[in-house]
Amino acid sequence: MEKNIIRIVKLIIGLFVYAVGVVMTINANLGLSPWDVFHQGLSGVINITLGQASIAVAFLITVLDIVLGQPIGWATIVNMLSIGTFMDILMINNLIPTANGLFTGLLMILLGLIVQGYGCWLYVNVGLGVGPRDGLMVILTKRTGKTVRFNKSVIELGAVIIGYLLGGSIGIGTVVMAFLGGPIFQLVFKTVNFNVEEVNHRFIQEDIRFLKEKLKSKEAN
């Protein structure tokens, strides 16, 4: 029980840290990340907050993950609900400063990506599944036989195009994040000696199977 509590606390902290990094890149005012271009465009069209748009998109992608056969974990559900909520709390209360120049904006983007990297390490390391968007990338890689980089690029390019058509903001920051996001995450993971492929995730399907076996065992007795 104590181990599970520690994992949950670490998960929540990691997702909050990740949200802080996301808001830092938004407040850099140099263009949004590929997914946030989509979130902003959607939020403007249906008149909801950026965080609520993030939750809505994450929900739809989670459903798509399940349909395509990608196992999801409890962290996937918590990720779907909490990052957007944390983003709204941070942005509505102006808890993250806003950049007002090119240099400070680029600095905020770089720091924001580093913060996201550490947040990702914290929540993925608990072994309760990955985020909806990462899950989509994984299952498409399995289904198409294409590389992770190819599928990630196609997904994010699609998000940028749709988001821009809906009114989302793009700029130099969008390009910087698209090219530097992966390398910075990799560098962050090296600083904590973290290998994503070594994490053994526990998925919701396993818990359901475990409960069914327990029920069968009780009925048999």
Automatic annotation (TrEMBL):
Transmembrane feature ranges: 12-32, 44-67, 74-96, 102-124, 154-180
Alphabetized UniProt keyword annotations: Membrane, Transmembrane, Transmembrane helix
Top-level taxon in the UniProt lineage: Bacteria
Endpoints of the signal sequence: none
Pfam families listed in its UniProt record: DUF6198
Keyword Transmembrane: yes
Coiled-coil residue windows: none
Name recorded for this polypeptide: YitT family protein
Organism: Paratissierella segnis
